[in-house]
Every structure is written in C-alpha cells, then in structure tokens.
Amino acid sequence: MPTKPTIVLVHGFWGGAAHWAKVIVELNGRGYSSIHAVENPLTSLADDAERTRKMVAQVDGPVLLVGHSYGGAVITEAGDLPNVVGLVYIAAFAPDAGESPGQISQEHPPAAIANLAPDSDGYLWVKPDLFHESFSQDLDPSESLVMAVTQKAPLASTFGDNVTAPAWKNKPSWYQVSTQDRMIDPDNERRMAQRMNPRKIIELDASHASLASQPGPVVDLIDEAAAAVSG
C-alpha cells in the first residue's frame, strides 16, 4: 500500500492554523498520521512563504501542500521545494507570476470587500460584527463569533505582494471553489482554477470558510490528491 504523504496545511488572512481544526480531525480519522499546520505571520508574502518552506524542509518525505484563501498564494510561492508533490487550493488565491491577491480581488471585487477595515498600525481586519455574514455565513453564529474575536489580521501591504514563480505551473494541483464565497469572488476562483489546468475542480455550496463548514468534502479532495501523488 502506498505511503500517505505528509499534509502541510497553510491558513489564510483573518485566521490562524486552528481554522483547519475540523480538517485535521477528519484527516487523522482517515489514517493520516503526519499532519502539520503552518502558523504564518501574515506580514508579507515573502515572510509567509519562508515560514512555510521551513516547515516543509523539516519533513522527511513527500509533502502535499494545502492552502486556504491567501494560503493559496503562499503555497504557490513556496511550493517549489523538491519534496512538495502536489498543491490543493481551498477557496484560495492562485496567482500567476507578477500577480498579487489584491490585484486579483480588484478585478472582481468580492461581495464583502466593504466589510474590511484598516487600523492605525496598518493591519486590515474584517469588521467583527460583520464577520459571520462576510466570511462564514454557513457556520453557527457562535463559531463565527470565535473566529471574529480571534481573527489574525494581515498587514494590508501583504495584499499587494506579487508571486514570483508559481509552483502550480510545475506541480499537480487540485482546486475547491466555494460558490457562496463573499471574500473571494466565486468567478475569480473559477478563473484561477481553470488556468491552472488542475487534476480536478470541485464546487461546494459553501462560504469562504468551507474548511470549517464542509470539512468532509474538503478532505475528500485532499485524500484524492494524496492518493494520486502517492502513485
């Protein structure tokens, strides 16, 4: 039986590694014994990619990188390491060379873009009272409340950081579109997915927080990708 790859999960803006909680439990239940979740500083794409590369470099063996939201830009930038065998995008940015998440968002502004607010230190927040309707409308309001209160805001400048050499041009990829996404326009997700020519695209009737609202189907896609890269 093929050995399962190590799964390295990369979070996006307005959340930390714990956003993957339900996915982690589901992966563990399906026999994945080597799972890591990066805690990125969200200070620049270069910083976040370097943090992710360092975690991948600690793994002895093949790694499947999984990115949510802005985490997709991170795995696009950091996925060039030789032991990265595949990339899975969960309602995520997948920029091409010279593109940034901010540029992609401006081309097709998401429904909740007006619900973002900068602070005096240069960090960009989802307005807490609008977090549920913006980010995670298909979760229980109490779960959204915890996400809103514990959100990890990025430096706003990170939105403008360009990808240099997209790993999806050289690594097999998979993509999950959230059809009710209010943080990345669903048509933007479809466009980014299609130009990657991924092994598979799935669409879920889900918010931006599909990793929390539909962990089963999300892990189905991760599991399929892991099986494919395991030969």
UniProtKB/TrEMBL annotation:
It comes from the Bacteria. Keywords: Hydrolase. InterPro entries: AB_hydrolase_1, AB_hydrolase_fold, Sec-Metab_Biosynth_Hydrolase. One of its GO terms (molecular function) is hydrolase activity. Coiled coil: none annotated. Pfam families: Abhydrolase_6 (PF12697). Residues 7-220 form the AB hydrolase-1 domain. This is Hydrolase.
